[in-house]
Amino acid sequence: MSSKRLFNSIHMIGLGGAGANIVETYITDERTWSAVQDIGVYISTLAIDVADGDIKRLRRAGDKVLKRLAEQGVPPDKLQITTESVKFPTPDAMFEFVDQGYPIFLSQEGLNAENYKPWLSTAMEIPPLAGGVARQRGLSKAIYVLNHYQLGTINRLISNFRNQLSKSLVSPLIFTIFGLGGGTGSGILFDFLKHLRSTIGRQVPIIGLTLLPCDADDAAAKGPSAYASINELNLLMGDEYNRRVVETYGKPYENPFNSVFAVALSPVYSKIGELPETHRAIDQAVVDISYILSSFDVADMLDHIGSGRRRGLDGNINLLTMIKIVYPVNIYIDAAKTQLSRLELYRGVISEEKIAIEGVDRVLSNIEAELKEYYGDYLKAMRTYSIESFDREVEDFIYSAPKVEHETMMRMKDLEEGLKLWIGDLAETIKPMTEATKEGTTEYVIAKRVEELLDLTLNVSTTYGRLHDEVTPRFDELNRYIPSATRLNPRQRVLLQTFAEVAKFVDSLVETLKSYMRVYALGSQLQTLYSRMHSSEQSEAKMNEIKRMVDADLRLLLNAIMTLVSQPRDKAKLLDSFSMQLSMVKNNTMNILNDARKEFDAKEEPIRIYEEEKEEIRRDLRKTILGFGRKKRLRSKLESEIEPKIARLQEEKRFIEEKIAKVEGVLDIYNDISKKLEATSSYRKTLNEIVRLEKQYFKNLSAVSGLEGIFMRVAELSREEQVKILYKILAGEEDQLTREGILREILDRDRVKEFMRSIIATFKNPGSFGLNHGYRSDRMWATIETPEGLWDDDLHKELQTALAGYIEGEVGETISTRIVDSPDPWTIKLMLIAAKVKPEDLDVYPTMKQLYSRASAHDKRLRYSFLREYGVNFEKILKKMETKIS
Question: Which of 42, 91, 221, 723 is 20 to 30 A from 572 in CA distance terms?
Fold first, then answer.
């Protein structure tokens, strides 16, 4: 946020642990980093605590912030971060100062010290200060005045703060943050602000922001300290009471605040249920509130709610709440762009996977041929083989398998589930294009074919029987029409061509799965058949080979099919597992190949021997000296023994050679697939890029839900609105996605209003402020920080109606509204102030009062801070006030 958008520059003081934590949130906020880079903006922050932990953490955070700003070239004096953990030298030194030293300093300031009364006793137990003052506000007051007057620590801090404040050319607004139920923040508050006011004067507004405890806080935090603090604040902010204080004790005791606002923890805790998370949410909300209050002149607001000029003794507290409504339009635009980039990469992946599925088809054909041979061998063994009827018998044999049709349909359902997840995004992206076409145009024909292909490919469990015959002509039509469609831009053409390729690929997958189911049924039937045969060495070998093909090869091919249909993010993981399985099958196939080659080589030697013997017989037959009987015997041996053996061995060799060629072909296919699965392959690189873009897409969408918080509501865009954004990008009309264009053409204004009404309605519940049902007032305030076009008179009336239940008098006069321009084009912030709140209007007040009543008299005295140096008895004042009110 630029300072040009701020009416005031924010300067923040954190007192106690709660205040220090919010200062840390403020300096680490990017709006603060942006503000200090503007000319004329100098920001001062200060945190004071007795405990060490929060101050040390703030220092570490401050060092990191200043280092980052320095790296960005921001001068070191633009942001001042001052921290101090105040202590005392010894308990005796502190007791002595409270008893004797402090009244001397009061007299030197011109204040009446005659009625001075020390409020600490040397008999009191001092807690370990590293963890704070154990909610003893009187103790923190003593530590503070010792550090201010005698040690001079506070003087230095205030002087440094004032000097930085004076540099800023943008009107300063000081926020002083403290926890109501703590010991340090609320304990040193009045004395610190008295000294701050005397140093900077009354021209600079000081706004107090205090955090109310909730039921989840420990008893000390929500009990006596909180009770004493809220009542001191209530009296201090009352004009009548403060006037009496000034008359009695002097002008330095004049109310230093321009206004004090309380923020309740109870509405937040009731939703979160975890106290640390509640505090973090509140810390960020307080910083947001500070920025809202600095975006306009607060004088009108303070005048309306009556701060600083209350006449009564009661009803002097202001309760504040806020809500941020975000329309994450830019996130959806980024998500749509990422989605399109991802889908456009599908075509490259599909082309690689088509080659893989063609390889699977060839392997299936080889396995089917081998299994048919085994079935033929079985029929021959049974003496029922007929070459004329063999093909028909194979088909009958396959479909005699139990539930083969049912199992095929179930596999197709698995395929369909994968396709719906995989193609669903592509279908959602294409639909806006097809819906925008006009009848009678080329684009309309394309749209119809796309719709038909979507229906076919997303319902393969019912269309697989006719899919191939219906996809092919439509695919051919799209290939003809898409290039000639003049109303399509290049990006739309690419996306439609990608879808056409996907549809054709699905057709290939379905055909391959059908082939697999046939071959699997054939293999399963053969296993059953051979298991019933009389066992022999030959039948056992065939049985083992059939089992290997079914259990290893076919399982691998099924995994390949189902992996190819999985979503990219799952596919990337499944491919690693598939690679291991493929490696095992490749090793088995290589072993088969090696065995076949050995078997082939083993045939060479007997063939060579028989060929030599054949040649020797032929030489003998050419000799004339041999008798007729000898030649006859040699010729008979040659024709009936040698040549048949050679022919048989040659036939066996040819059969083995064919087997080697088939196995080598399968191995080549497996090797090709393995290469595609390598990490460095173009296929894996493209797939990894798709997965990266998919993660980015879902990261964008999760960022939408991640924005949701206690003080933030996210108006998620409807599917229709998201599709409109997608279509604008696809149509090349991204330049129309300006804020005005989105409001005019994308957002459903009625839906926006309905969402806003639901949020406004929550303010009807007093618990949203931290109030009980008894609260009534004649003053409320609403600041609406909104971009143009998202807030109108109807919503203004809805807000007035929601707050009307708290109002005494005319709603129009009682509820004042200020509209402020939002620096964020898609964010609305509502800040509501319930003014003139009495302590008893707070939902946590009964608990405070009850716990206070149980405390000892000594404990109660240590819980008060304001005017303790004069022995003011607040219990008596409160009783008088209650009597007067009643």
Answer: 723
Residue type, 652: E
Amino acid at 261: F
DSSP β-bridge partners for residue 260: 208
The string of DSSP codes covering 788-817 is: TTS--HHHHHHHHHHHGGGBSS-HHHHEEE
How many domains does the chain fold into? 2
In the chain, the N- to C-terminal Cα span, in Å, equals 49
Residues 794 and 847 in one domain: no
Question: In this structure, are 217 and 134 located in the same domain?
Answer: yes
Domain containing 120 — which CATH number? Answer: 3.40.50.1440
**Tokens 């140096």 -> residue:** 869
For 47, phi and psi rounded to 5 degrees? -130, 130
Do 201 and 81 lie in one domain? The reply is yes
- Distance (Å, rounded) from C-alpha 844 to C-alpha 728? 52
SS3 assignment, position 440:
coil
How far is CA 750 from its chain centroid? 28
pLDDT tens-place string over residues 554-606: 999 999 899 888 888 888 788 888 888 888 888 888 988 898 899 888 988 88
Instruction: Answer yes or no: do 784 and 857 share one domain.
Output: no
808 close to 802: Cβ distance less than 8 angstroms: no
Q: Which residue has the higher pLDDT, 739 or 463?
A: 463
pLDDT tens track for 280-294: 989 999 999 999 888
Domain membership of residue 798 (yes or no) is: yes
DSSP 3-state of 409: helix
* Burial class (CB within 10 angstroms; exposed 0-12, middle 13-18, buried 19+) of 783: buried
Closest CA to 241 of 848, 678, 823, 866: 866
**Residue 499 near residue 345 (C-beta atoms within 8 A):** no
- For residue 471, what is the enclosing H or E element? helix 467-481
**Side chain identity at residue 67, one-letter code:** K
Domain span at residue 872 reads 3-315+838-885
| Contacts (Cβ under 8 Å, ≥6 apart) of 107 | 113
CA gap 809, 815 in Å, rounded: 10
128 plus 220 within the same structural domain: yes
Half-sphere exposure of 116 (CA within 13 A, CB side): 17
For 206, the enclosing helix (H) or strand (E) is strand 206-212
The verdict on 807 and 878 lying in the same domain is: no
Q: Is residue 437 very low, low, confident or very high in pLDDT (cuts 50, 70, 90)?
A: confident
Residue 421 lies in a domain: no
Look up residue 113 and give its two tokens: 């010290």
User: Are 824 and 871 contained in the same domain?
Assistant: no
Neighbours of 206 (CB within 10 A): 22
Which residue, 10, 345, 308, is CA-closest to 177?
A: 10
